[in-house]
Amino acid sequence: MRPQIIIRYIGLVLLLSAGLMFVSFLISAFNGDSGQIPLLLSGILTSLMGVFPMIFVPPSNQITHKEGYVIVVLSWVLICFFGMLPYALWGGEFSFVNAWFESVAGFTTTGSTILNDIEVLPKGLLFWRSATHWLGGIGIILFMLIIVPALGKARMSLSRLEMSPLAKSNFHYKTNKTLRVVIFVYLGLTLAETILLYVFGMDLFDAITHAFGTVATGGFSPKNASIGYYNSVAIEVIVIVFMFLAGMHFGLLYALFTFKGNKWYKSSVLRFYALSIIIGIVFVSLNTWGSTYETFPEALRFAAFQVVSISTTTGYGTYDTTLWPPFSIMILIYFTFQCACAGSTAGGIKVDRVVIFLQTLKRQVLKLQHPQAVIPVRVDGQPVDDETVDSVLLFIVLYILILFLNGLALTAMGVDITTAFSASAATISTVGPGFGEVGSASNYSFIPDLGKVLLTINMLLGRLEIFGLMLIFFMKSWR
């Protein structure tokens, strides 16, 4: 393994981050706010750390699988570290641990926050906060591959490591084509939502930052009340639509928008994703109608927004869901686990794994009835190999185990059981808001510092699909 090559690629990632810091600085300078110096200093320091490897390390288009994993994992960790600098230098509620928490929550698109008063932040810092979502949502490595065409064969290795294995099933393109698909969909959704939000009442700054949070399925808002601040049905409908789209596989979205595939709607994963959300909305609407909300249209309005927000791991809010009846809360907890589709910016177990799990369960029942039969697991008529099935089942077991262990650790720190397990589930799924003391109208500021650090590890595990982060600790066994 060549440390100098790893440092060079990480330097590229830091330069990307520095570029957005300088954009945020310009916004602060334009508004004359207190974010100017923290953002400028952070941008300069991050640029210096990124440019040194470009000067002293010669480029290489050949990287090994082992080097690729180290590049991906260390890029995520270091971009979060340097991303916390603007917060730490600005001060306010941002202690060192709080700044780290906010940075990781941004880049991993979790959207959890330690801020009690978001609106006190200067505009430049608010833009940086939302920009971390946007950069983390597209995947910092994928973004690097898109803008640096000279990487050659290294593009293939890094893109394979950055994307979830399940995400590749609907990308029937070569690496270069896949990257163009991702950027086309990501930029297209961001631009379209920004325009619509601006037309229907948001100012340009709010429209851009909320589009960043929606398309990245992150949930950072420049408002304390999130989307509920606007109290606008039109804005809520726009955000619902784009949250749903952002939760779909980008390959399917590309086929839909370019009319280059007429079978996208036959995807069993997409059907399960859409149908489960519709059923969830109906159940929550009926359950909250007459208890939390007086009329059915009102219940439908808030149910639709919150179910889509949680199921896509976006985490925007229009109502304090901790006040909902237990049945509705249980439905949201289910969506906290399931989340959206592989190949999107969402985290969690993902619909694809749920579908494979259900098909595996069906096969097991049939095998009990017909012990001699050879019954493959099939998705959309195509057999799923046993290695993928085993990987899915192992992922789900690990997911639940990590959730339990983190919840157990938080309760040992004095956090109540509902909040502890809810916070653990919300962070590993990159959903953001949970229940109890970390509900949609609350934040994570009261969690002990050690608990916040554990939850940031949870976020990174969720964003890197557990195995991606775990592999870094088993490097000695790689041969």
Task: Give a written overview of the molecule.
The chain has 479 residues and is an all-alpha fold. The chain contains 20 helices and 2 strands. A hairpin with a 2-residue loop joins strand 1 (377-379) and strand 2. Helix 14 (296-311) runs parallel beside helix 15. The longest helix has 29 residues, at 3-31. It is globular and about 65 Å long.
SSE blueprint and pairings:
Layout (H helix, E strand, L loop, with lengths): L2 H29 L4 H21 L8 H19 L1 H6 L5 H12 L15 H16 L1 H8 L5 H10 L12 H25 L4 H12 L17 H14 L3 H9 L9 H21 L7 H16 L14 H13 L12 H19 L7 E3 L2 E3 L1 H27 L4 H12 L20 H15 L3 H4 L9
Antiparallel strand pairs: 1-2
Radius of gyration from the CA trace? 22 Å
* DSSP, total strands: 2
Question: How far do the termini sit from each other?
Answer: 11 Å
Give the neighbour order of strands across the main sheet. 1-2
Helix content: 55-70%
What's the pLDDT, averaged over the residues? 86
- Give the strand content: under 5%
Q: What is the H-and-E element order?
A: HHHHHHHHHHHHHHHHEEHHHH
How many strands, which pairing sense, and closed or not: the largest β-sheet?
Answer: 2 strands, antiparallel
Note the total helix count. Answer: 20
Structural class by SSE content: mainly alpha
Shape: globular
Q: Pick out the low-confidence regions.
A: 146-152, 154-159
